[in-house]
């Protein structure tokens, strides 16, 4: 019987449920070499731990030069999106037992953004696209003296896209974005969707005009990679389709 | 320059070219979005192109499957096709319009598809320009030639 409390049981009981895994990390150390290499780390770990715990174990006990981002470590901050076994996931939400620990587990930085070191990428182009869709409430007229009220149905309309944590798992899984960084990317469109369909917001038309761009929603090829990658389960491709539909119905 | 220095460093030294003060160059992804990214390509061209692809696709299913059935399956199949068969069909304005619509829609649909492929995959502006130039030239040539043939077809030509 495996117990989640590690301190309590006797030594052998704790050791019995540890397994040996191979963590295959794609490493880039600019101060050592310009070459990107795969490095294997063999470590003992509880299969119910997360990939992030394995990375911590490597960084804290084996190789302190391993570099990656993480903040809250509980799937909220969106810092530790990485490509695990060829799929974009959050390292803090992926359990070792769910990704076939018998084989080496590959960990790579997310694609389509410049790698700065190991698993750390330059997120600036991603956030630039986010800023470009004006991700804030825009209203006209005087400020009300109380809250801006909204019906439950109106709130429900954009509920799905409010869940975005800006981890870039969707955008960096998009083949169009890999080849052309000028494309806004799914995450920016999701965050535009969140305000376009908000009944309190008054700049929907402006945002639609921004996304009507050459590099806007029309570059989406509906490959559904973004929907598969989203760690929050947002139906990203559906949100993009809704923006397309809004553009068509508003124009004609 | 890097190859030169690589060759200069002997295996004896074994020292890395890079250190904390001289880190290796970072590989930038193609055409990154920056603050200066050209923002305004105003106009509804991409919207129209997207809609056209959907609508022409639906129409083309009918046109092309009908075309294939008539040409290859029904009434003797491919063996019946000859100059006389084409001449007989184009005597009727209905088939002229059918073939003309198919020519225009298929060419525009196909070249718009290729245009998006070029946009997605060609990384350098120069490559894009040339590939698209080639594509548009071929499209215009084929459409014009096809249209000319349909309208000026003479069954009594020797």
From TrEMBL, chain A:
- What's an example of a GO molecular-function annotation for this chain? 2 iron, 2 sulfur cluster binding
Give the 4Fe-4S ferredoxin-type domain ranges: 154-176
Q: Which InterPro entries match?
A: 2Fe-2S_ferredoxin-like_sf, 2Fe-2S_ferredoxin-type, 4Fe4S_Fe-S-bd, 4Fe4S_Fe_S_CS, Beta-grasp_dom_sf, Helical_ferredxn, SDH/FRD_Iron-Sulfur, Succ_DH/fum_Rdtase_Fe-S
Q: In which pathway does it act?
A: Carbohydrate metabolism; tricarboxylic acid cycle
Where in this chain does the record put each 2Fe-2S ferredoxin-type domain?
A: 19-113
* CDD domains assigned to the protein according to its UniProt record, in alphabetical order: fer2
What does the note accompanying the cofactor annotation read? Binds 1 [2Fe-2S] cluster. Binds 1 [4Fe-4S] cluster.
Keywords from the named record: 2Fe-2S, 3Fe-4S, 4Fe-4S, Iron, Iron-sulfur, Metal-binding, Oxidoreductase, Tricarboxylic acid cycle
A Pfam family annotated for this UniProt entry: Fer4_8
Question: Among its keywords, does the record have Metal-binding?
Answer: yes
Q: Which PROSITE patterns match?
A: 2FE2S_FER_2, 4FE4S_FER_1, 4FE4S_FER_2
A biological process (GO) of this protein is:
tricarboxylic acid cycle
> Superkingdom, according to UniProt?
Bacteria
Q: What is its EC number?
A: 1.3.5.1
Please give the cofactor(s) recorded in the UniProt entry for this protein. [2Fe-2S] cluster; [4Fe-4S] cluster; [3Fe-4S] cluster
Reactions it catalyzes = a menaquinone + succinate = a menaquinol + fumarate
Family assignment?
Answer: Belongs to the succinate dehydrogenase/fumarate reductase iron-sulfur protein family.
Q: Which PANTHER family match?
A: SUCCINATE DEHYDROGENASE [UBIQUINONE] IRON-SULFUR SUBUNIT, MITOCHONDRIAL (PTHR11921:SF29), SUCCINATE DEHYDROGENASE IRON-SULFUR PROTEIN (PTHR11921)
Q: Which NCBIfam families match?
A: dhsB, PRK05950.1
What this protein is called in its record is: Fumarate reductase iron-sulfur subunit
Organism of this sequence: Streptomyces albidoflavus
UniProtKB/TrEMBL annotation, chain B:
Where does the record say this protein resides?
A: Membrane
Its primary localisation, in coarse terms, equals membrane
CDD domains to which the protein is assigned, alphabetical: SQR_TypeA_SdhD_like
Extract the SUPFAM superfamilies matched here. Answer: Fumarate reductase respiratory complex transmembrane subunits
Q: Name one Pfam family in it.
A: Sdh_cyt
Q: Does the keyword Metal-binding apply?
A: yes
Q: What is this protein called?
A: Succinate dehydrogenase
Q: Which organism was this protein described from? A: Streptomyces wadayamensis
